[in-house]
Every structure is written in structure tokens, then in C-alpha cells.
Specification:
The strands form two sheets. Strands 6-7-8-3-9 form a five-stranded parallel beta sheet, sandwiched between helices. A four-stranded antiparallel beta sheet has the order 2-1-4-5, covered by helices on one side. The protein is of the alpha/beta class. The radius of gyration is 17 Å and the shape is globular. Helix content is 32%, strand content 25%. It has six helices and nine strands; from the N terminus they run E-E-E-H-E-E-H-E-H-H-H-E-H-E-E. The longest helix is centred in the last third of the chain and has 17 residues.
Length: 209
């Protein structure tokens, strides 16, 4: 699965943010978008996954494996987006939040996937915990895993590691990037931190004009 993005024009109101940009993200790679605040990084991710609303205007093409998806509703694009904010379901336990994302199949197999995910997250004892009792770092880890368990066709990462401490941040980068590579998922990462860059050869600097 590959992700191609051609932005003819991305604007907010009368302000042009991105013009004539082409991105080609190969399977299993992470392409990094960098730039000052307000240059259009997050607006571009919203346009790609289909959640951009007025005054954001997007003119361009979004393709997964050569098939255009920009005319499809968000839920049919198969593109996951991860934010700094975790957006966990407050009425579900940690296990239930993860199970919600696992594709349909035999219940015991789905539960096995969740148990492995909790082990990978270093949170095996918090399966039945209320998300509201978790630390910020723990909530971020659960949200990251939930998105990956849904087996998306592409992943957009909007500074998802920003609220983690340095040690955990490094481990989560390794886990997320390793999972993306292993599952051959194309990914776009927005960050202000050079330490988050997965591949120095795959960086686009946005200028906001």
C-alpha cells in the first residue's frame, strides 16, 4: 500500500498555506512534515483523512495504491490519524477501547490480539482500568495502539509523541515506526522535534505560502 498526495492548493480563508506539493509515501515508510506553527501541517493531515472543514479549502488528489480516495467520506478512506490528544472512549475500559479497534473475527482471537497489544504497551495490568485513571503517557500509548489495531491503509501522525517523557518517547517511536514498517503502512508524521524523524531522507519542510 502506498500513499500519494498532490496538493494543488490548500488554503484557510484567503490565506494560501500549501501550493503545488507532491508527496509519495512508500509502504512501510514514514515521511516527516516540518515547519513553523500555522504553516498548514495539521490542515494538510485533516484534508488527507477527510476531516477538514471550512474555512480550510483543499484542491488536490489523494491516492492509496493508485486509487483516488479524496472523494470518499472519512470512514471509507481507511486512513487513521493520531493526535496529541488521545480521544479514548471514557465509558470503556482500556481493554474495551483496544478491542473496539480490532477487526471482526472470533472473539478469542480478538482478545488474544488485545492481550499482546497490552504487553507491547507495557500496560498488561491495566486491561480493566478506566481510561480516566491513566497518566497522560499511558493514555497516549493506548490511543496509538488502538489506531494501529484497526489495520489502517495509511497512518497520519500529528505530533503523537509530544506529551511523553524522553525515555518513553524513544520507546514509543521505536514501537510505532517498527509496526508501520512491519505492516508496510505508509505514514505521514508532523513534528517540531528533530528526534522524531524516522528517516532523514524523507522530510518536507512547509513554509506556509
Amino acid at each position: 500500500m502506498s500513499l500519494q498526495v498532490h496538493v494543488r492548493d490548500l488554503s484557510v480563508g484567503q490565506r494560501r498555506l500549501v501550493h503545488d506539493l507532491r508527496l509519495d509515501v512508500a509502504p512501510g515508510t514514514v515521511h516527516t512534515l516540518m515547519g513553523e506553527s500555522g504553516c498548514g501541517k495539521s490542515s494538510l493531515l485533516a484534508a488527507i483523512c477527510g476531516t477538514a472543514t471550512a474555512p480550510v479549502r483543499f484542491d488536490g488528489d489523494i491516492l492509496l495504491d493508485g486509487t483516488r480516495v479524496d472523494a470518499l467520506p472519512t470512514r471509507r478512506r481507511g486512513i487513521a490519524i493520531l493526535f496529541q490528544d488521545d480521544l479514548l472512549f471514557a465509558h470503556m475500559t482500556v481493554r474495551e477501547n483496544l478491542l473496539f479497534a480490532v477487526p471482526p473475527g472470533p472473539r478469542d482471537q480478538r482478545e488474544k490480539v488485545v492481550r499482546q497489544a497490552l504487553h507491547d504497551l507495557e500496560l498488561p495490568d491495566l486491561a480493566e482500568a478506566d481510561p480516566g485513571t491513566l497518566s497522560g503517557g499511558q493514555r497516549t500509548r493506548v490511543a496509538l495502539m488502538r489506531a494501529l489495531l484497526a489495520r489502517p491503509r495509511a497512518v497520519l501522525l500529528d505530533e503523537p509523541f509530544a506529551r511523553l517523557d524522553a525515555g518513553l518517547r524513544a520507546r514509543m517511536r521505536e514501537f510505532v515506526f517498527g509496526t508501520i514498517q512491519a505492516r508496510r503502512i505508509p505514514a505521514l508524521l508532523v513534528t517540531h522535534d528533530a528526534e522524531d524523524i524516522a528517516d532523514p531522507q524523507r522530510i518536507t519542510q512547509l513554509t506556509g505560502s
